[in-house]
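Team,

Forwarding the record for the chain on the shared tracking sheet. I've put the sequence and predicted structure together so nobody has to dig through attachments.
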Amino acid sequence: MSVILALDTADRTAGAAVAVDGEVVARVVERAAPRHGARLMDLAASCLRGAGVGRGELTAVAVTRGPGSFTGLRVGLAAAKGLALGLGVPVVGVSTLEALARSAFPWPGVVVPVLDARKRQVYGGAWDGETGEAVVPEGAWAPGDLARAVDREGRAALFLGSGVAPYRERLREGLPGRYREADPSGWHVCPGRVALLGHRAFLEGRTTAPDRLVPVYHRRSEAEEAGRLGG
């Protein structure tokens, strides 16, 4: 039996979910991502109680590894790694963008999750809405460049996420006639999707030791940029 606890603080929400043998049995989402791990662990404890699962029954902890908010990612990864170390179970790092994309599946075209990366960029990528195959690699993109890369797929493209509203016009211009938007109610990461991706990775043996899990930023933080320029 697999029992996966999933945690997410990558973007503008915070969430936890529990999946047992590939079925999500409990989940909770809050609008604001916590800046400290204690609140996230409260969400996790609430989710475990709702699922009727004890910490000792967990077989792995899944967590969004990025891209996303630098602070949010650090909070989520620290909580997941600490919990996994204490329990002696592995962790699974899940792509924030893939988890967001899969909340719109199935869809007869390309699903394009975009997060607001600031500095006139988005974190984005694209997945086939029916097969789940990645068709445009994820990374930090200028909105127009991402739209043009998606346009080469030649199919309608469904956009969702926090990067849609600030860059809507640039994204639409790069996809004449093929730009679509998901309902805004689905623009946040669903922790249940993180749990299901974690379950699949666990079955396939794609786990890691807690001390080896690292975030995926896709670009340098402001502090790193300042250090590089200062050096």
